[in-house]
Every structure is written in structure tokens, then in C-alpha cells.
Design a protein that fits this description.
It contains no helices and 10 strands. It has 110 residues and is mostly beta strands. A hairpin with a 5-residue loop joins strand 3 and strand 4.
């Protein structure tokens, strides 16, 4: 059985949607959509696996080197392995409230 859920928030024609799909292997696929002054925008698909322990783990389709606009590292057995580098946008930082905060991205190496 497949379950699909939708989350909606927004007003006045501007909205954010999130679609969730859970497959028979307990892989949860999440896709965000944004309606704004720009045309319809689709954000990258993210996948997670529900483990027997009840925890969620990030899931990758292919093993080997992985790189996109926000993260890079090695994937082994569909999970992160070793050192990873992440670069995340800081779009929720209010520059008027925090004028000293000038970085538009946070860099994380772990």
C-alpha cells in the first residue's frame, strides 16, 4: 500500500506544498513545491528510510560519490559514509535584526 500526504501553507495565491510518499520498503520521499511571485518552483527530492529501530535515516538511491548544490560526500549502503560537506542557505535570518550576520550560507563539515 502507498500513502501520499500533502502539507499546504500560504495565503493570497502564494503557497508552499510538501508531498510525502511512503513506499513498501519504508522509503519516505519528500518533495517541496513553491508558488510565489516567481512561477511554480520544484525543490529537490529528499528521501529517508524508516529503520527497524524507529529512527529515520537519509536515503540515497545510488552508492558512491554524491554531490549537489548543498552537500557532498560518499554513499555506502544507501547512507552517508565518512566525511560530508554541507552548504545550507540562511534565508530565515533577519538581516535587520542581525546586521552583523553577513553570510548567506552556513558551511558544515562533519
Amino acid at each position: 500500500m502507498k500513502r501520499i500526504y500533502i502539507h499546504h501553507e500560504g495565503e493570497m495565491g502564494l503557497a508552499n506544498y510538501t508531498l510525502f510518499n511512503i513506499d513498501t520498503n519504508h522509503i519516505l520521499s519528500i518533495r517541496d513545491y513553491e508558488f510565489s511571485e516567481n512561477p511554480f518552483m520544484i525543490k529537490p527530492l529528499r528521501k529517508y528510510q524508516l529503520l527497524p529501530s524507529g529512527w529515520f535515516s537519509r536515503y540515497y538511491d545510488n552508492d558512491g560519490p554524491y554531490k549537489n548544490n548543498e552537500e557532498q560526500g560518499m554513499v555506502k549502503n544507501h547512507r552517508r559514509e565518512g566525511k560530508w560537506i554541507e552548504l545550507k542557505p540562511n534565508r530565515f535570518i533577519d538581516s535587520k535584526e542581525y546586521p552583523d550576520f553577513t553570510d548567506t550560507y552556513t558551511y558544515l563539515e562533519a
